Amino acid sequence: MRRVLAVAATLLALAMPAFAGTSVVPALKQFGEPLFKPDFQHFPHSNPDAPKGGALTLAAPGSFDSLNGLILRGVPPRTLGLISDTLMVASGWELDAAYGALAESVELPDDRSWAIFTLRANARWHDGAPVTARDVAFTWDQIQAHGAPFVKSFLDRVKTVEALDDRRVKITVNGVGDIKPIIDFALTLAPQPQHWWTANGRDISKTTLEPPLGSGPYRIKSVDAGRSVVYERVADYWGRDLPVNRGLYNFDNVKIDYYRDDDVMFEAFKAGAYDFRPEYRAQRWSTGYDFPAMQDGRIVKIAVPSDLPLGAQGFRLNTRRAAFADPKVREALGLLFDFDWIRKNILSGQYRRTRSNFPNSEFGASGLPSPAELALLDPFRASLPERLFTQPYEPPTTDGSGNNRAQQREATRLFKEAGWEARNGKLTNVKSGEIFRIEFLDGSGALTRVVQPYIEALRKIGVEASLRIVDSAQYQARLDDFDFDAVVVNMNFFTPPGTELRGYFGSAAAGTKGSANYAGIREPAADALIEKALSAKDLDSVQAATRALDRVLLWGFYMIPHWHNPDNWIAHKTWLAHPATPPKYDQDYRNSNFPTTWWVDSAKLGARP
Fold it and tell me: Is the peptide bond before 583 cis (omega within 30 degrees of 0)?
């Protein structure tokens, strides 16, 4: 379920007749033709001659308490997708294509109202049983009954899933003419083995630490609850010779150790406790890697470029709480976040300020609205701020000196207009006498160095601000219940943006426990623009809708934007090797932090600490 964007390819379609007005294809693409043809052998970013073998140790923040990744309850490992295949996979070189994995072909009618996936005859679970269409239908039924709300919202344009026979499964979608929900289903749904889940009293609606049966390149070898998971490569993996998998999944054993403290996790890397580390802290990347293993060449650093559209990281303000319901309050809070000082003093001058909910992509707003955007926004002009139509959105800037009195004055003015004024040094509601408070909830402590200066800036104008760090299970529970004032969330999206927009920004999700609409956005204009993006028939129309949506969200001040980095910063042991060419839209490092295309260079194993 988690392996939404992995490397991919395709084989020839089955030699079977299509019904009138239908076609049978080996790959799907929303706009245009698939880049890779049916006879290709492997992707440019994989090495088909990469040797298999060796062991890799990775590290992950936080903890886990379940191996059931289907349901809302519990926190599963992010790497759980290693044990499961999806029907199709993405290429890494296109943003809107899917190539056959479990499914060898897809039959489509001209109006795209349904699709029939034909599973490969040799697709097998790790116990040797065939992967069947009934497993796909079973998984769909369980998602509808017990699945996490965000997963359900992502697939909510699929109406029915029906097993036609052992190898053919038919999905019917809401609406016609749009292939996006079919692609989303193919990339997202990882079938679960019905025969395993229904045996021996197992309950798929509950958490479990029993390693589930999978169909993917790895199986779970051992589990130390909350501490580590060990995966072993499946030597007779049914899909090992597919072009989509050639040159991938090269390590015999992969261990993931969990660390509750980010600084402790880094110290463990310095001591040689694990082998591959993505780095997300600019100061550490700039100055923290001066230690013996780096100095003597046992560890190297690389920056891997990527054009992958990124998620928007920022403080999400919970508008369900009265204190944050007024957009003037939210704008005032954003004015007091001095990114320029933080970038200079904490982020070592690295990163780019995020100015959109769709950074590093062509789907976010820039400049003034285009004519196509205005046509979509005009029906809602009366309910939207006039600035949205006349000014480009720009987050506040300072000179980086820490002297941001102009922002403090403007924030104080906005608070006063919203009914808050300073009394005895405390920002107080003029009607109720309530003191303005904001608590930043964090599940790891990794951003403490950023949050604390912000808290001090808020306190200067009388806001009672605080930071609360809780364990990962409590953090997830409070997120699911929307029990927070502000949280730092990085909202990834798929490309082109699709039904995840409803889960992030749609009114229906605002009241759904466990949804990803953390800010509680209920905005009719946003709802309408989301539907415009979902129903668009060409890329230009998608971009016009998402850019217009971006403006509505930005001028609603639901997020205090942070920053983003278009490159992947990686430190690794010297004996790890990787292809020279990364995929254009790489996802490995940002999603599961598992280096799918890497391998052990046996000639350099002597460099191991």
Answer: no
Contacts of 201 (CB under 8 A, 6+ apart): none
Say yes or no to pLDDT of 587 above 70.
Answer: no
DSSP letters for 29-53: ESSS--SS-TT--S-TTS-TTPPP-
The torsion angles phi and psi of 249, rounded to 5 degrees, stand at 55, 60
How many angstroms separate the CA atoms of 361 and 497, rounded?
11
Residue 599 has what pLDDT? 97
What confidence tens digit (pLDDT) does each residue in 239-277 have?
999 999 999 999 999 999 999 888 999 999 999 999 999
- Is 575:605 a contact under the CB 8 Å cutoff? yes
Q: How far is CA 389 from CA 371, 376, 397, in A?
A: 11, 12, 21
Residue-wise pLDDT tens digits, 157-214: 899 999 999 999 999 999 888 898 999 999 999 999 999 999 998 999 999 999 999 9
Phi-psi region of 520 (alpha: psi -120 to 50; beta: other; left: phi over 0): left
Sign (positive or negative) of CA dihedral 503, 509, 512, 518: positive
Dihedral Cα 319, 324, 328, 332, nearest 10 deg: -120
- Amino acid at the residue 476: Q
Nearest to 482 by CA among 519, 447, 451, 438: 519
What SS3 state is found at 330? Answer: helix
CB 564 within 8 A of CB 360: yes
CA distances, 151 to each of 68, 120, 249, 328, 480 (Å)? 14, 25, 26, 33, 13
